[in-house]
Amino acid sequence: GQQLNQSPQSMFIQEGEDVSMNCTSSSIFNTWLWYKQDPGEGPVLLIALYKAGELTSNGRLTAQFGITRKDSFLNISASIPSDVGIYFCAGLYGNKLVFGAGTILRVKS
Amino acid sequence: NAGVTQTPKFQVLKTGQSMTLQCAQDMNHNSMYWYRQDPGMGLRLIYYSASEGTTDKGEVPNGYNVSRLNKREFSLRLESAAPSQTSVYFCASSGERGGNEQFFGPGTRLTVL
Predict the structure, then answer these.
(1) How many CB atoms sit inside 10 A of residue A95's CB?
(2) Interface-testing mutation among A5, A33, A95, with chain B (most B C-beta atoms within 10 A)
């Protein structure tokens, strides 16, 4: 089946830093979605991308739909402590979503 | 709007016991989904229902059954629970865009001993 490779698996952030993560696949997707999950909660949709090359922002978050339709990235600018959590990419294949394994964001102590 | 609600929030079963996880949405969405989430593996689709009266298998359907009771409700049943089914289960729904923009419930944390 379709697989998404999400990287990095985890990262530590310091308040104020910019953060980047990405998803790649050998398959073409028509839609890319980015979700965030807080502990004990369900994933919450952050950004949806529908066209190759599309660049979309939601506050401090910016995501791009790769031109080949096989990848997407998410940037978080000027991170704050509440940005910690697990970020998932998801690609729409037919009428089903395929999820990456997630990127865990932690705060540097 | 409550969005997507799931019951129960936590459950412990013994091997071989059965149970039903309940899910309801009040967003008038056509499509509903059941996922399981295991550490390091993201979310994997168990079953989905594109519309009332239809259900289809996802990536990991073995050991589960589903019922789309009406447009609002989609239940997941474990007939004979196994330790491998220990996981966090999420229900989701989506509207006009089909599988796009799925909205998730808070999850059910299931432990099978």
Answers:
(1) 14
(2) A95
- Cβ–Cβ under 8 Å, residues B27 and B103: yes
Given an 8 Å threshold on Cβ–Cβ distance, is A33 in contact with B106? Answer: no
- Structure tokens belonging to residue A100: 């990456």
Q: Which residues of chain A have pLDDT under 70?
A: 1-2, 109
Count of other CB atoms within 10 angstroms of residue A101 = 21
| Residue B90 touches chain A, beta carbons under 8 Å | yes
What does the pLDDT look like over B26-82, one tens digit per residue?
999 999 999 999 987 789 999 999 888 899 999 999 999 999 989 999 999 999 999
Q: What pLDDT digit, counting tens, does each position of A12-36 carry?
A: 989 999 999 999 999 999 899 999 9
